[in-house]
C-alpha cells in the first residue's frame, strides 16, 4: 500500500563575515524537484541582503538552480528556503517485479529501451567517485547471485551500515571516496559515495541524492527547532518498469516518507546546496538550520 506524507521544510543558511564582502556570486540547489514520488506545492527563496540579480534555471540533471549576485558591501548573508511537499513510497508488490541485478547489468549495457540507455550515464566514474575492482569485489561478496536488484542493493545497504562507522570527525567535505572506504568511517556523504562506487563498478546505474531527513526527538523530550538535517543517500536504477529506487546506507533502510529528496546528480559536487565565490569577507562563520515539519 502506498504511503504519503506532507511536509513544510525550512532551510536557513547564514554567513557572518569578519570583514566586508564587496561582491558575491552564488548558486543554490535547494528547491525540491517534482519527480515520481514527490510533488512540490510551493517554494519560496528569501535572500538578505537582496541580490542585484537572480536567475532561476534548470541544470543538466533537471535540478532547479537559483543563481544570484550581491554587489553591495555586506558582512552577513542569509538564505531562507521554505517549501511545501508531498512524498510517497511505492508498495512492496510493485517492487517485486524488479529484475535480477546480474540481468539488469546486461540490459543496461545493451540499452534495450531508451530509459535503459539514458540510465547508462550513471554507470561511469565521476569527479568524486572512481571505479575499481576493489569496490566491485566488496559488493559482489554481499550481493547474492540471481537475487533481484532490490534485494541485492538492500543487502549491500545494510552491510555498509554495519561495516562502517558513522563519525563526523573522521572525514570532511573534501575526503575522497577511496579514503572513506579504507577508513570505513564517515558521514552520509561518504556512505553514499562508497555505495555508489561499489554499484557502478559492477555496472549498475546509481545516482547521488541530496535531501532532508525527518528526525524524531528522544522519548519524553520536546522537538527542537532547527534540529532536523540535510542528508544524502543513493538512487539505483531498477529497470524500465520500476525506474529508480532510493536506499540510505547511513541508516540501513530503503527510503520512505521520512526521506524528502531534493536534487540528484553523479556525486556531491553536482548538487551541493550552496556554492559560490566572494570578494573580501575575511573569516566566515557558517550556521545552518533545518526544520522538517509534518503538515495536514
Automatic annotation (TrEMBL):
One GO-annotated biological process of the protein: proteolysis
Molecular functions (GO terms): peptidase activity
SMART domains reported for this sequence: TGc
Location of the Transglutaminase-like domain: 180-251
InterPro entries: Bac_transglu_N, Papain-like_cys_pep_sf, Transglutaminase-like
Gene3D superfamilies: 3.10.620.30
Keywords for this protein: Hydrolase, Protease
Name this protein carries in UniProt: Transglutaminase-like putative cysteine protease
Native source species: Aporhodopirellula rubra
